Amino acid sequence: MSNLERDPREIRCATTGTGEGAEVLTGREVPLGGPRAMTVRRTLPGAHRRMIGAWCFVDAYGPQRATMRVPPHPHTGLQTVSWLVAGEVLYRDSLGTLQEIRPGQLNLMTAGRGISHSEESPETVLHGVQLWVALPDAHRHTGPGFEHHPDLPVLSGPGFAATVVMGSLGGVTSPATAYSPLVGAEVAVDGTGEVPLDPAYEHGLLLLDGEAALVGPGPSESGPLEYGPLEYGPLEYGPLEYGPLEYGPLEYGPLVYLPPGRAAVRLSGRGRVLLIGGEPFGEELVMWWNFVGRSHDEIAAFRKEWAEGEGFGAVEGFGGAPLPAPVLPGTRLKPRGRVR
């Protein structure tokens, strides 16, 4: 999916200052296109935290009746991860790929040095997430590629079943290609379950549907810890494991960030939760529009190539013109790290 903002802001981050406790990233609503466009809730990049592991972009949408129509547009230096809860989306790219995606299936596009693609759907109930993974420097110039995975492995335990979309979780590994240590999973919660985590990873949790809560150890275990319910309306959190922080009411669709150091997270309720995570990303990036690069000049060169019809190929079969690139800001874009 494209960032369709007409005046995209420079996305800046810093390599230190992870903070000691959990954070709630409320995000903002972004319309994709004109007055009848679908609205997404963008929680990454945020005002403070720009990344969770290599995950650098999270757009959640729906459930809403809408038509998705994202014209051909370019990408560099990233992977796009498309995950549906409801609906269907037709994907095309400059490699000649034509692939429909349905709930429970993964469409993974690797931009590498450059690709263009489009996405569209009929008017239907759409509900899902679009995520970007930043490619590390050693792999960001790889050739573009596309993968469709209709069947993904599941990690099951008491009270939960986790479909492993990207990376590994509890020893279960997705077949999707990943270029850095990370995890992406849809966790179906039914009761109370303890989902294993890699303590070297930072993690994010986003409610997809139903009701779910992050809960702490029981009375016989050390340390009182309890989180309020992950829900679409107002939400309050109790004391946190990493410090006596409290959060007031949150907007619909917050992303809860957990710093490294956890070997598991306990979830309770009946619903589905998106889990993302990875080793903290140590490289500085420049993210602007649909490009991930390392310098202003690199981003400017990507934009020029797209504007001149070079470097990204052509998407055949889409009934419309490619998406024009926005004007670069008047100041130079600066590479930054993962938090401001």
From TrEMBL:
Residues 262-309 form the Pirin C-terminal domain. Signal peptide: none annotated. The keyword Cell inner membrane does not apply. Its cofactor is Fe cation. InterPro entries: Pirin, Pirin_C_dom, Pirin_N_dom, RmlC-like_jellyroll, RmlC_Cupin_sf. Fe cation binds at H73, H75, H117, E119. Pfam families: Pirin (PF02678), Pirin_C (PF05726). The keyword Transmembrane helix does not apply. Keywords: Iron, Metal-binding. Binds 1 Fe cation per subunit. It comes from the Bacteria. Residues 39-133 form the Pirin N-terminal domain. SUPFAM superfamilies: RmlC-like cupins (SSF51182). One of its GO terms (molecular function) is metal ion binding. Belongs to the pirin family. This is Pirin. It comes from Nonomuraea fuscirosea.
